[in-house]
Design brief:
With 376 residues, the protein is mostly beta strands. It has one helix and 32 strands. It is globular.
Length: 376
């Protein structure tokens, strides 16, 4: 690993913007980055050709789906949406890379064995699934790239309800953003600039009108207490009342804001596609003397651990920054892997899932010295 040197953000921002434009126009939009979820001391990662359960302390593979030399049947395809992790089940999405159509698959959490498939092989598949799957412990919620939201029983795969979002019939209401749960309300972001709230029990719309940004809402939403945060491709971070959908405030960044912020006490840490990372107070006012400048676009939500901020950028750099003032402590380079998935913490380590490159997962100690790697 080597120390970072300053590089112009515009070079990498151009690459990031181009990749997003290309993704919008193709069926396999979500297949360019892995989805990762942590539960207990196990990491579950959907990394295109397979889904893995990995011991977070050692990096040892516990199981994979489909198994080596195994057949996934109707659940074969590409895997990239972040899985939903429940007590007994892991629910994943399998995409046909040729058509973009998807199926949902329930796996045994302990072994990775396939338990159910929805829709079954003899029925028409769902639309593309780019957004991460979320759960309240009894249901799994799924948004699709053609404007549907579904709730399923994770034990059986039975559909409990399904709702077609308004305007979906005109090719709008595509869901890329991982939804957020506010009590029994499921809040969904769409590529046609909206936030909509659905009743988690039956899928009916709850807000009187959608929240409307001026750009696509493509990344994971952040819910903290009674405030919802959403980044948009109009260069803004929005704070929204999750009960009514009314805007509370907005912050103007330097470029597109993909993911919502990390929350650290009274601070919000958010990056943009120019590679700048901002610390804001709860009213959207900047706190650092100047933004931190990464070496490439910051698509993934930063990670805050105590007084440290870990920032992943699309050029393949992982940065360690002081929470108090945004000054850099250290940077390491994982290129040719790009970092599009948010870093996560497990067993006292920082884990990233590079897109491309020789490793599926790389774990670091808190000072960014390497702990372990999982190869491809």
């Amino acid at each position: 690993m080597i120390q970072a040197t300053a590089m112009p953000w515009r070079l990498f921002a151009g690459i990031g913007i181009l990749s997003v434009i290309l993704l919008v126009g193709c069926s396999g939009a979500g297949s360019s980055w892995p989805g990762m979820q942590v539960s207990g001391e196990v990491i579950y990662v959907a990394d295109l050709d397979a889904v893995f359960a990995v011991d977070g302390r050692s990096g040892q593979e516990l199981w994979r789906f489909p198994p080596k030399n195994g057949n996934a049947g109707a659940c074969s395809g590409a895997y990239h949406a972040s899985p939903a992790v429940l007590e007994n089940r892991i629910v994943i999405a399998a995409e046909n890379p040729g058509t973009g159509e998807s199926r949902l698959c329930g796996l045994d959490r302990g072994s990775g064995a396939l338990q159910w498939v929805y829709p079954p092989a003899d029925q028409r598949p769902l639309g593309p699934i780019f957004a991460g799957l979320v759960s309240d412990g009894t249901q799994v919620f799924v948004g699709t790239g053609d404007g549907w939201v579904l709730a399923l029983n994770p034990e059986t795969g039975q559909v409990l309800w399904q709702t077609r979002l308004p305007e979906a019939g005109r090719g709008a209401a595509r869901v890329w953003a991982t939804p957020a749960l506010f009590g029994t309300t499921l809040i969904v972001g769409t590529m046609d600039h909206r936030l909509l709230a659905l009743d988690g029990k039956d899928g009916t719309l709850r807000w009187a009108a959608p929240f409307q940004a001026q750009g696509a809402i493509a990344g994971a939403l952040t819910l903290d207490g009674d405030t919802l945060y959403a980044g948009a491709f109009d260069d803004h971070l929005y704070a929204v009342d999750p009960t009514t959908g009314q805007e509370r405030w907005r912050f103007k960044a330097n470029h597109w804001v993909w993911d919502g912020p990390a929350v650290a006490g009274e601070r919000l840490i958010v990056g943009d596609m120019s590679g700048r990372v901002f610390a804001l107070d709860r009213q959207g006012k900047p706190l650092w003397p100047r933004p931190f400048q990464a070496n490439g676009p910051v698509r993934a939500r930063p990670l805050v651990v105590e007084d440290r901020v870990y920032i992943a950028d699309e050029a393949g750099w992982l940065h360690l920054v002081n929470l108090e003032d945004g000054t850099k402590v250290k940077s390491v380079n994982l290129a040719p892997g790009r970092l599009l998935t948010p870093p996560m913490t497990i067993a006292g380590q920082i884990v990233v899932a590079p897109t491309g490159g020789p490793f599926r997962l790389v774990a670091f100690r808190s000072d960014l010295t390497e702990a372990w790697k999982l190869g491809r």
